[in-house]
Amino acid sequence: MMSAxxxxxxxxxxxxxxxxxxxxxxxxxxxxxxxxxxxAHRSPQATSLPITLPLRLQAYERLVLLIERxxxxxxxxxxxxxxxxIHSYQQVxxxxxxxxxxxxxxxxxxxxxxxWNVILKLRNDTIALINNAAQVSExxxxxxxxxxxxxxHIASLEADPYLQGAEIIRREISAFx
Length: 177
Hints:
By secondary structure, this protein is mainly alpha-helical. It has helices at 2-41, 44-70, 72-78, 86-104, 113-135, 143-156, 161-176. The termini are far apart.
């Protein structure tokens, strides 16, 4: 009987010592465990925000500038017709739009899909507007009248799509700031 009690006391001593070691280890490791839990719960976006925010803002800024450069009024001021006929001038304008777009195509990785879709739509609509204006123009129309025709079409729209596109981008920027 005595040996059973001694055995039980030895087991209790070893159990107590083991629990004491586990408890002290827990107390030492608790700050590191909390840090691991916090990092696991933190989103990857929150940890990379200080790095990506300037890049995203710059991308949105460049897209607003692209919208201004796609606007036919600004485009035609920037690209004078010289002595070109309307079909040659049409090609120059379309090539300028494509060049501007290609110059900014990498910005899509920093912006939301909605903003990028706005840019794609404005690019495609601007090219279509210029091509349609050239197709329905009389064969002997000069480039000055061709330019006026495009500007009148833009002015006749109920809402300026270029202003609306820039407004969509501004709202997206304010959503994540």
